[in-house]
Every structure is written in structure tokens, then in C-alpha cells.
């Protein structure tokens, strides 16, 4: 007869070895259609059907019984398939049993032994064997996080053995991807397990009926015996004897097993103590672990362990736990002190400060560690600034600029602000940085750089620490959950004014120290003693002041980048304004001193226009000065225009006028120097000019008259070119009083020009004018009694030659001066001739003709340089002469004039301009 199904086949068992009552999972094929279909299961010859739990046709879970064979097959028998076969085997491991009186060096695990008596079948309660998979289908763990399940089912659990078991939680956690068919199959398995549970309970009762009957029979026999013995005395009754026997048996048993039971009690106590230690070993080991982790610097681990211990044992009443927890609190207190010391330790990075503050916050340190750190940092920054000043003052007193500093101070003095050099946008001034920089740079300049370095390197971290303190980013999630952040934020808001005062104190101290080094007069007397003390004998040049301004601007720029409010940085802006004004005035004063030394560079080399290099050097000096002021006078964002300050504007105007007048005084000094005072004086003429006399040598020592001419030429150039060019430069660089400076300067140079011109004319015209009267009356000449004229007399020719020599001298220096000089000399000569003619009482005919000839000859010779004054003088001279009556006299006059011009044609050529042809009479 054929069966409906194939016989069962066991292909696997896990584990494949173990002690009796080991839970195993059997896998195979055709293992039955359900729990009722499974009618037999043996492992190594022992019937295991009672503990079997059918899961599916390919899976059975059971416990291995106390099999006789050490190794055997697994045989499954079903109603539908019959007795099956196995391709695998199971090995039973035997362990040595230890009696109650035997001593053992190891703990014997307590196990639930099931006594399977041969004469009775005891049922085992299914409650003692809880299935690992109550649904009997494959578990498919989902991807739903445990936190989400806890939030969805508060107070519930997915453990089916828990009192708060939630079936929905269990299904989502273990069968979120299981199909509906498999879930229906799982529901059927649950029903089968429920029915099996009822059957198992009933079988348990049925299996114990014989025991109940035996107990009932024994109790009935005792009852009958007691009734038959009821007439005896109470003391001798069987009940009393039985009680005594039982008591003696108990005492004997206690005596026999007292030592064993004592050892058992002691072992139980030890076992319980070890269980407690094992269960609470985290707490007992925590003090030592805290110490070790502190030494390793693993503060996060310490904090996590402390939070865990606090939540578990913070409110315990157990004395042992309280003692250990008190030791933990002691170690944590020491850690708080250690972290607080590290927090307040300086110097320290912002990262370390934030880390230590967060640790202290998580450890619930008393007070406000963040604010303590801010206060300590503030004091440290102020101390650094004061130490910087004292170190440089000490260096200045000991050895000045040539003193070799020790390692720390030398590095702070020589190394520029590393992170600000990248911010430089290029300027007209750069601090010298060669090997000799340490000896060249003034103390005050290096001090300002070092002081700025201190502020720029420390204040940003100080400000960022405050910002983190205000917004609560210093604290961890633990602090946020405990509400500590809100409390500290409130404290931060209340301390805003205090922190603002700290920032203002740092910036104010920076400004006071810089003022004490560079602008001591701007400080009150008491602050001058506190922040001053510098050697003020050496005045900083404008170039070094420009470098200082550049450094302070970088400092202000770095602090503004931190979004520090402008009102806190206003004192730095005020300092910058005073430094810029000081730099402007100092530069102008130094320029005036440089201008006063310009005469030393005068080489008396003139160009075609009669100008030496001195005006150009003066203009170059002024232009360089203005260029050096370009950076400090430039208005950065938030700065005030220096030239809009009335006092600075007036003072700058006075100094500029003083510079101009200083140069004019230099010219006057050069004009009055004697030959012995002139250093390597020589006159070099541009030989490329076709108008230069070839008779003039290239090199010669200039006379006093030549120096006057050169200075006059330079004065004219100053008035017409240099001052106008400088006015444009001044306006370009923001000087609002450029017009006033130019006007006053031109007036001053005109005054000098007039004085020098009068001096030169006096030197040149006086000899010529003084020679006229003696020349006229030489040889006892008499206008009343003289011979007929035969030509112009020698005195006039000599006077003309003298004028020609003046012309040559002036022309050699500057052609532009020739008309001005000659016109003035001719005015003096004509005025003298007019005076001499008017002084003659009477003229003879020949005398009148002779006088007219000489006056006309002189007038015609210098006609190009006649002015209205000289023409008037010649007219007065001619009017003093008798008029010519006859035509013969006029003809004779004309002939004699032509003869004079012909004889002196070459000499008189210098008086004729190249574009003017000789006048024919």
C-alpha cells in the first residue's frame, strides 16, 4: 500500500553535539504536515517527542534527552510518511556528576533535570520550555530602528515573555517583510501550540494520578491506625512517637549534614557575592577605570561612565553602592578641578578651551566655567600687552637697538604678524627686512608690531569664545537636555555689558600703550607715567610712522572682521587719526630740514634756460614727501579726512609755507656766499646751444655777480614753473590750502628776486654810470669851447663795451634775464646822461652837435632795450641841447652816426634780436 507522502528525511541538526537537555534544531524533508502529524522523534535512541515543537515541514525544535547511546541517528516518524531516515548523527556529551557531599574546585551549573521514571510517564509542562520562535516561521528582521519602535509603542516591549508584550511591535520587528500567506501559517501554528499546551497540562495531571492514589492510601492507613490507638496516653500515642522520631531524624540529619550545609551556605553566599560583583562590576570597577581614563586623557569615556553610574546609583540606598558611588564622586570632583585648572591655564587654544568647558558642563561643575575662562583670558591678554611694553623698555635701557634679545623676546621682535602679511595690499612703504633690520628698526616700531601681534593673535579667539558662550555651542547634548544651556545663555545675556567692558579695556590698553610710545603728549600726566617711559630723544621719521599706521590699520581690520561693534573700536580710529596727523606734521617738518640741506648739493651747473638742478631737487623732494604721505593720508573705511580737520589743515599749511620759505632762504644764502664759501663751484654751459659765446670756457668759478644771475634765474623758474607744479601735486594729494601756499610762496620768491636783482644792477650799473661824467670832461673838455665833432668819443664807446660785457655775462647764464637787466642798466645810464646834459649851463654850436651825436649814438645802439623811463630820460637830455639850425649840421650828424654804427657794427650786434633788423635812419 502506497503512502500519501514520502518518509521523513533528516539532513541536518544544529548543534550536532551537546549534553542532555540541549536544545537542537532538526532540519530535513517531509517532517510532517503539523504537530498532530508528528508521532515519533528519537535522538540516539531516546524518545524526544514530548519536548518536540513542530515548526514547519522542514524544521523541528526539541531537547535531547538522557540517551543511553553516546552517538546515534535522528529518526522522525509521521502519520503521513511513516518512519523516516537520517543522513546525520548527534553526539551526546557526558559530564561528570558531582554529589552533594563531593568537593569541587569549579562551580557546577544548575540545570533543570527531568526525571523520566521507567514505571511512570510524567508530563512536562510546556511553560517550562518556551519556544524561541512562537510563530513557527522564519524570522525576517526588519530595518525599523529600535528608537522609532520605542517612540511608537511607549512602555511596551517586543519580547513575548514580557508582561508588556506588544504583538504589533513583535511583528514589525521580526516579520515586517513576511508575506500574508506565511502569517496565516503562523496563526495556525499558534492555535496548535495553544491546543498542545492544554493537552500537556491534562497529561501532566493524568500522569500523576497514581501518586495521588498512593498518597491517599497512606493517609487513610495512618488515620485508621490513629483511631485504633486513640485510648492510649497522649505521651505514648503513635502521633507523638512519630513526631519524636521525625524530630530525631531531623536532628540527626542536621548533625550529619551540618558541615556540608555550612559549606553550601558559604558557597551560596560567595556565589551571591560573585553574582553581585558580576552584575554590578561596572560600578565597582568604575573608580579605577576613571583614574586610568583620566591618565590617558579619555575624558569622554569618563563622562559617559559617570552619567551611566549617576542614573543607576545616584539615588541608591544600598550601603555598598553608596560607598562606591561616593568614591566615584570623589574622583569626578578631582577631575573637575583638573579640567578647571587646564581651562584657566594660559596659553591655550580655542579648541582646548571649548573642549574643557564642554567636559565641565557635562560633569555639572559648579559655577560658570565658561565665564571663568573668559575672565582669565582677559587678564592674560592685558598682562601680555604690559609685558611686551616692559620688555622693550628694558631692552632700550640696557642696550638700545643693538642689544641681542633672548629667544622669546627676539622672536617676538623680529617675526612679523604672520597671518596679517597675507592681507597686505601693497603700499609705497615696506619695512626693511634684511639681516640688519634688527639694528635699523626703531624700538617703538618693533614694539607696536609686537603689541599688534599679541592683540591680533589673542583677541579673535577671545571674541569667538564669547560668541560660542552666548549662542550655547560650548555645551553638549547632555547640557541641552538638562536645561543647562538656557541657564548659561541667560547668564551670558546678563554679562554682555561686562564683556563689552573687557573688549573696550583691551582696545583702550592697546591705544594707551601706542600713545605712550609714539604720542606721549596726548596722554594725561598720570597715564604718561604708567604707559610711557620711552626714550624720546630719537624722533621717528615719517616713513616709520607710516609703517606704524599700516600696522594699526591691519589690527583694526582684523578686529573689524570679527564683527566687533564699531563703537568698541572707535578708540583705535581716534588713535589712527592722531597718528596720521602726527605723521603729516612730522613728515613736513623733516622735509623742511631736508630742504635746508639742499644748498650743499648746489653744483652751479646750468642748462640752456639758466637753471641749475636745485629747483628740480627741491621739487623732487616735495613730490617724494607727498608720495610718502599718500598711504597715511588715504581715508580707509570709517576714517576721517585729515585735511578736513581745521587744526591739522592750518598747521600743515604753515609747515608747507615754511618749507617754501626755507628753500627761498637757501637761495638767498647761496647768493650771498663768498668765493671761499662755495664748495667746488663751477659753471657748466650747454654747448649744444648755438647762442652761447664760444669764448666762455666750460668750467670756471662763478663770481658773485654770476651767482646772483643764477639765483635770479632759479627764482624765475620757481615762480613760473616749480610752485605751479607743486600746487597741482598738493591739490592731488588732498591739501585744501594749496592756493594759499602757492600765493605766499610766489610772493616770497618775488621779494627775493627783487632784492637780488637790485643788488646785481647796483653792482653793474654803478661803475658804468660813474664813468660817464669823468669820461665826458676828460682832457678839460668844455661844451662852450670845443672843436667840430669828428665822431663819438671814447668814453661812450667804453660805456657801451661795459654794457656789452654785462650782456654777455647775463646771456651766458640766462637769455631771459638779458632784457630785464639791460633795460634797467640803460635806464640808469640814460638818467645819468639826462642829468649831465641838464647840468651844462650853455653849449656852443659844436658842443651842442657833439652832445647830440653821443646821445643819439647811445640811444640808437641800445634801442632794443629802451623803456618808457629811459626814453623819457633821453628825451629830456636832447631837450636840454640847442636845436640844430642848418641842414649841414643835420647831415653831418647823420654821417657821424652812420660812421659810429659802422665802426662798432660787430660789438653792437648783441643788442639786436635775431628777428629784428637794424633800424635805418
Structural description of this entry:
The protein has 921 residues and is mainly α. Helix content is 59%, strand content 5%. The strands form two sheets. Strands 2, 4, 5, 8, 9 and 11 form a six-stranded mixed sheet that branches. The protein has a five-stranded mixed sheet with strand order 6-7-3-1-10, with no helix packed on it. Strand 4 and strand 5 form a beta hairpin. It is rod-shaped and about 215 Å long. It starts with 8 loop residues before the first strand and ends in a 13-residue tail after the last helix.
Record the SSE blueprint.
Layout: E1 9-14, E2 17-18, E3 23-29, E4 38-43, E5 46-47, E6 53-56, E7 59-63, E8 71-78, E9 82-83, E10 85-86, E11 89-92, H1 146-152, H2 167-174, H3 180-207, H4 209-228, H5 238-279, H6 281-296, H7 299-313, H8 319-344, H9 350-362, H10 369-398, H11 407-414, H12 437-440, H13 443-471, H14 477-481, H15 484-494, H16 496-518, H17 525-531, H18 542-560, H19 570-596, H20 614-628, H21 630-633, H22 646-672, H23 704-732, H24 738-776, H25 794-813, H26 817-839, H27 845-861, H28 868-879, H29 887-903, H30 905-908
Helix pairs in contact: 6-7, 6-8, 7-8, 8-9, 10-13, 10-16, 13-16, 13-18, 16-17, 16-19, 18-19, 19-20, 19-22, 20-23, 22-23, 22-24, 23-24, 24-25, 24-26, 25-26, 26-28, 27-28, 27-29
Amino acid at each position: 500500500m502506497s503512502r500519501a507522502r514520502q518518509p521523513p528525511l533528516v539532513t541536518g541538526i544544529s548543534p550536532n553535539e551537546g549534553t542532555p537537555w540541549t536544545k537542537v534544531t532538526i532540519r530535513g524533508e517531509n517532517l510532517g504536515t503539523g504537530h498532530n502529524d508528528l508521532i515519533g522523534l528519537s535522538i540516539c535512541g531516546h524518545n524526544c517527542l514530548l519536548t518536540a515543537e513542530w515548526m514547519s515541514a522542514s524544521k523541528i525544535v526539541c531537547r535531547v534527552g538522557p540517551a543511553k547511546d553516546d552517538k546515534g541517528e535522528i529518526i522522525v516518524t509521521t502519520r503521513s510518511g511513516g518512519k523516516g531516515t537520517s543522513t546525520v548523527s548527534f553526539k551526546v556529551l557526558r559530564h561528570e556528576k558531582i554529589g552533594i557531599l563531593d568537593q569541587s574546585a569549579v562551580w557546577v551549573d544548575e540545570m533543570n533535570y527531568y526525571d523520566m521514571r521507567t514505571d511512570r510517564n510524567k508530563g512536562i509542562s510546556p511553560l517550562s520550555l518556551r519556544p524561541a520562535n512562537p510563530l513557527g516561521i522564519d524570522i525576517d528582521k526588519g530595518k525599523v530602528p529600535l528608537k522609532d519602535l520605542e517612540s511608537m509603542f511607549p512602555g511596551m516591549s517586543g519580547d513575548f515573555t514580557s508582561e508588556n508584550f506588544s504583538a504589533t511591535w513583535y511583528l514589525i520587528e521580526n516579520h515586517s517583510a513576511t508575506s500574508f500567506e506565511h502569517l496565516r501559517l503562523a496563526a495556525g501554528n499558534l492555535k496548535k501550540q495553544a491546543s498542545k499546551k492544554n493537552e500537556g497540562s491534562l497529561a501532566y495531571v493524568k500522569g500523576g494520578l497514581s501518586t495521588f492514589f498512593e498518597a491517599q492510601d497512606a493517609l487513610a492507613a495512618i488515620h485508621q491506625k490513629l483511631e485504633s490507638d486513640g485510648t492510649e496516653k497522649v505521651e505514648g500515642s503513635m502521633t507523638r512517637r512519630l513526631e519524636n522520631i521525625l524530630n530525631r531524624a531531623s536532628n540527626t540529619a542536621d548533625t550529619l549534614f551540618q558541615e556540608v550545609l555550612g559549606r553550601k551556605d558559604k558557597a551560596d553566599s560567595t556565589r551571591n557575592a560573585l553574582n553581585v560583583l558580576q552584575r554590578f562590576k561596572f560600578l565597582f570597577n568604575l573608580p579605577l577605570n576613571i583614574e586610568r581614563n583620566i591618565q590617558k586623557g579619555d575624558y569622554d569615556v569618563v563622562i559617559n561612565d559617570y552619567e551611566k553610574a549617576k542614573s543607576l546609583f545616584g539615588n541608591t540606598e544600598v550601603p555598598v553602592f553608596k560607598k562606591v558611588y561616593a568614591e566615584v564622586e570623589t574622583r569626578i570632583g578631582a577631575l573637575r578641578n583638573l579640567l578647571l585648572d587646564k581651562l584657566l591655564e594660559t596659553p591655550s587654544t580655542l579648541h582646548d578651551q571649548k573642549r574643557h568647558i564642554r567636559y565641565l558642563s557635562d560633569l555639572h561643575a559648579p559655577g560658570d566655567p565658561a565665564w571663568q575662562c573668559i575672565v582669565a583670558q582677559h587678564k592674560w591678554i592685558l598682562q601680555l600687552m604690559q609685558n611686551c611694553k616692559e620688555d622693550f623698555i628694558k631692552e632700550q635701557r640696557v642696550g638700545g637697538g643693538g642689544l641681542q634679545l633672548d629667544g622669546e623676546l627676539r622672536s617676538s621682535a623680529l617675526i612679523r604678524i604672520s597671518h596679517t602679511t597675507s592681507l597686505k595690499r601693497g603700499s609705497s612703504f615696506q619695512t626693511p627686512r634684511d639681516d640688519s633690520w634688527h639694528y635699523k628698526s626703531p624700538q617703538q616700531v618693533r614694539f607696536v608690531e609686537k603689541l599688534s601681534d599679541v592683540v591680533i593673535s589673542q583677541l579673535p579667539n577671545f571674541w569667538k569664545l564669547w560668541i560660542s558662550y552666548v549662542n550655547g555651542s560650548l555645551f553638549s547634548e547632555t547640557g541641552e537636555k538638562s536645561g543647562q544651556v538656557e541657564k548659561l545663555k541667560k547668564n551670558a545675556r546678563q554679562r554682555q555689558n561686562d564683556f563689552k567692558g573687557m573688549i573696550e579695556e583691551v582696545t583702550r590698553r592697546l591705544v594707551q600703550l601706542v600713545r605712550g610710545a609714539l604720542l606721549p603728549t596726548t596722554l594725561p600726566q598720570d597715564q604718561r607715567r604708567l604707559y610711557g617711559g620711552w626714550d624720546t630723544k630719537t624722533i621717528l621719521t615719517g616713513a616709520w610712522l607710516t609703517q606704524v599706521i599700516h600696522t594699526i590699520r591691519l589690527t583694526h581690520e582684523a578686529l573689524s572682521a570679527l564683527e566687533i561693534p564699531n563703537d568698541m573700536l572707535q578708540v583705535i580710529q581716534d588713535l589712527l587719526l592722531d597718528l596720521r596727523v602726527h605723521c603729516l606734521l612730522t613728515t613736513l617738518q623733516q622735509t623742511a630740514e631736508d630742504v635746508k640741506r639742499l644748498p650743499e648739493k648746489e653744483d652751479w651747473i646750468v642748462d640752456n634756460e639758466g637753471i641749475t638742478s636745485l629747483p628740480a631737487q627741491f621739487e623732487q623732494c616735495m613730490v617724494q614727501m607727498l608720495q610718502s604721505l599718500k598711504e597715511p593720508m588715504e581715508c580707509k573705511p570709517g576714517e576721517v579726512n585729515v585735511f578736513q580737520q581745521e587744526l591739522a589743515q592750518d598747521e600743515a599749511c604753515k609747515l608747507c609755507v615754511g618749507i617754501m620759505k626755507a628753500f627761498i632762504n637757501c637761495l638767498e644764502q647761496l647768493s650771498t656766499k663768498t668765493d671761499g664759501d662755495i664748495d667746488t663751484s663751477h659753471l657748466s654751459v650747454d654747448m649744444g646751444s648755438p647762442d652761447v659765446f664760444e669764448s666762455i670756457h666750460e668750467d670756471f668759478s662763478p663770481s658773485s655777480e654770476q651767482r646772483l644771475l643764477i639765483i635770479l634765474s632759479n627764482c624765475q623758474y620757481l615762480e613760473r614753473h616749480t610752485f605751479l607744479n607743486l600746487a597741482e601735486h598738493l591739490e592731488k594729494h588732498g591739501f585744501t590750502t594749496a592756493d594759499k601756499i602757492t600765493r605766499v610762496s610766489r610772493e616770497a620768491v618775488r621779494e627775493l628776486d627783487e632784492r637780488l636783482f637790485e643788488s646785481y644792477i647796483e653792482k653793474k650799473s654803478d661803475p658804468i654810470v660813474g664813468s660817464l661824467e669823468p669820461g665826458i670832461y676828460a682832457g678839460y673838455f668844455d661844451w662852450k669851447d670845443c672843436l667840430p665833432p669828428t665822431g663819438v668819443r671814447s668814453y661812450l664807446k667804453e660805456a657801451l663795451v661795459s654794457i656789452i660785457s654785462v650782456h654777455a655775462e647775463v646771456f651766458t647764464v640766462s637769455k631771459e634775464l638779458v632784457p630785464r637787466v639791460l633795460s634797467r642798466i640803460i635806464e640808469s645810464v640814460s638818467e645819468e646822461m639826462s642829468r649831465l646834459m641838464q647840468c651844462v649851463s650853455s653849449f656852443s654850436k659844436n658842443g651842442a652837435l657833439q652832445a647830440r651825436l653821443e646821445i643819439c649814438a647811445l640811444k640808437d645802439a641800445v634801442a632794443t632795450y629802451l623803456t618808457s623811463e629811459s626814453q623819457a630820460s633821453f628825451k629830456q637830455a636832447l631837450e636840454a641841447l640847442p636845436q640844430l639850425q642848418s641842414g649841414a649840421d643835420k647831415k653831418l650828424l647823420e654821417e657821424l652816426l652812420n660812421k659810429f654804427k659802422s665802426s662798432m657794427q660787430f660789438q653792437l650786434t648783441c643788442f639786436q634780436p635775431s628777428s629784428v633788423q637794424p633800424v635805418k635812419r
